[in-house]
Task: structure prediction
Amino acid sequence: MLALSAGAAVLLVGYALLSPVKRDPLPADGPVPPAGSPDELAAARPEPQSTVSQSDRSLLAPSLRGTLPDGALVVDASGRFVPTSDALDLFDYYLSAVGEQPLEQIVARIELEIRARLDPPDTALELLGQYLAYRDAVRELVATQGLDALSLERRLQRLREIRRGVFGAALAAQLFEEEETRAREAIAWREVALDPDLGPDERAERLAALEAQLPEAELQRRERATVAQRLLEQEALLRADGTSEAEIDARRRRAFGEEAAARLAALDAARAEWNARVADYRAERARLDASPFADEAEANAALEALRASRFEGPELLRIRALDAAETRAPR
Result:
């Protein structure tokens, strides 16, 4: 079974390479994933926890209030911190608020979280310093060379070089090997999927050969994503046939259990809330587009003010990407 389409392969490459400072970025090119993506539908994961007091959490950036941190600070059996990509996810949770708060304040917030969770905190604090240096190095690469000027293969190579220069070979492999492996797989998939010289049969054979080389863990991950996507498609058909939300919820509870069904319902609510906000924003944007402006700069400033009045933090990145994708779509 070919579980990853050509479009999904391109999107995966974009996730891994087009915006490397943030580890789970919106793609710089291509469609924006929906709020309820297949990975979200593997919904029985434990809730993240924060050990920082509620009074301290009240000082978070507005876009993070009412949320719990992503990621984790993993420890071994003796309680010693083990550097993993989960720690980088935790750092990115706070760093997503850059622009809302000064970087120094955000770094102090991460250090507070580390000290609250770990004793001693030294290794995790050192990893945070390395990760901040890595982000600076990637920004320097973008500013001086520009990733858009590099091929996808060269982008990955430059990121590998920066990571190993900052973290050292062993730690860089520990933190990024899985991400880099997926990026290499996606690049190979993309080359085959978009090769204009291949006919349908030869393309299918080559894609099947690439999939056959994947490790079992990756095949299982893709199968889970495929199952989740099929669930979305089946539920869309049921809704179109008039099936009630109560009936769909009952099906989920029978198939996945009470906890997972509750999380799926929460994802439905979050998607509906987001879609309603986007619809309201687009109605206002249409009225703005019809308004007279002195020049393009004034129009762009008005549009950005509209976005800022309705979205915060990472939401602004998402709505800008949605607008860009809509602009690029053929009409």
